[in-house]
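Revision sheet: structure tokens.
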Amino acid sequence: MTKLEKLSIVGSGIMGHSIALTAAWAGFRVKVWGTNEKDIDRAKVGLEQKLEVLKGYEVLSENEKQKIVDKISFTQSLTECVKEATFVIEAIPEILDLKQEYFRQLDEICPEETVIASNTSGLSATEIAKLTKNPSRTVVTHFWNPAHLMPLVEVVRGEHTSDQTAERALSLLKAMNKKPILVKKDVLGSVGNRLQYAIFREAQYIVENGIASMEDVDAAVRYSIGRRFGVTGPFMTMDMGGLNTNASITSYLFNDLCDRKEIFPTMKELVENGHIGPKTGKGFYEWPSEFTAEMEHEREKELIHWLKKDIEETKQSVKNIK
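Predicted:
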């Protein structure tokens, strides 16, 4: 079924055009819907910039870059975008009632066999499909930002998602050279964000209680678990460290870990004062334009390093099969 999927993306923002890039790179023709000409122009600029970076790191040639561009088309008509699609991925803002309304429309416009997926990072798959007549064909496919560089996609089943819908999503994502996982239950935050926010809660607790500075907490993650988790996840890490040792640590440490249920005061104050990160020049850190550009470059460079490694592993696997 995968190679026959006709893919459309509803939303041309950062996630939308990055997902389109990923699909086109894997050989799929993709239609992308944007709300207006300005949104589409912005998406085309973003697409060009991302492709130029990949070319600059010698991940793509000029010829390969052009093939990707040629496989992506944009439209301001939602009906035109999805009328022939067999698989639609919604990538609009994280507002539940807005997503519900678009899913209601897509449920009416799309052919019966079309899978309708949401790229939500935390909203309920079941709630998003609430206004549809056929929720069995709805599912969440949560791409991580930046979507064209991060391999993980979380496939989240809603209460009514059919086995066939989940299987088609997993199959499509594998064909797009992603590393999809199946989230069997519709829980807030799925898997990745629940793990990420568990670390973030403990990180804030450590800083708020004067145990270590913000900079040193970031360094502790970057230079220890951040590196190790790139090879072994939490369960494999525990095994390799010895379950007897880690069971002993668990017995006294779990009880001492933070279990706060509310936003920490520092973060709440920053948000209330409009300090939300690079967009405003300040968050937990100061973000002058030069530092923002530097960190974006560093993140991109590191992710492309891993991307090249993934590409080589895929080539080797294909070679071994042959």
